């Protein structure tokens, strides 16, 4: 509530303003402001007089103070009105665009807020202030995480400024976001753009290739693989490329890529599984077994029986009478849940024991089967 002293000063200021004595009126308003709590309306009026007196910088400051007071009181619409006055007073003041955007987003008006930031970014770019434009687009990306256009523009700006690491990181984030929304075509275009800018594909590249294979778009995946330089890709991407090539029937190229990645990612189950598939496809059954069995044992120890079972089935498809694999199969599969398949495994193991000359073990297993 305004004090009596403040009211008196305001009345005197208005009388001076009416007489055209702007500087004297401004002085009285400034004194009035010191007589109590910050007042948005009073600051707004002071801004008007300062602008009329052609004291633009001070007018902008007064309007922005008024906007802050209104915002703190929860009157965001009034804050917008005051900040618009600051913007009209000096359109070159870049901070007014950011402040307006902030107020608009608080009001739940993203279209208006976005327009303020895009206007500011455009001004920076026209004046060759790329670093400042990047900051604005980063702000927009923070405010609207799913704004694909803003993130794509940010990637372009970062790349053009020479910050390849930051551009690659932002591209990876954008790519993952696109894939999570099912925008596969846009993801493909993003990869092609990234290749033009020589950016790293991060985890997005492998994710896209896997998604293309999974959704039956092998030709598109193969086209992307052919555009990549095998010697320059990260291990995860090399593995994904290998999966595409294997699906396309180019087993030799797939093997080369996966073997190149093995020293760094060779302990991962999905990589071992892929490499095992490659070895099985070229008839190197023992090599595949040597590679897959330790992984099967590791999965069994971790109680990940589903993936262990998948690997066992792969090996058995190549050699249905392998004792080591069959024995593990009986530990992985459950007689109650996988009854028919479990019985097939037992019969196959009994036959394998017999053929290997392990007659006692074969007899015991045959006996168990006969008693069921």
UniProtKB/TrEMBL annotation:
Q: Which domain of life is it from?
A: Bacteria
GO molecular function term, any single one: identical protein binding
Q: What is this protein called?
A: Tetratricopeptide repeat protein
Which key words are in the record?
Answer: Repeat, TPR repeat
Q: Name one Pfam family in it.
A: TPR_19
Query: What are the start and end residues of each TPR repeat?
Result: 114-147
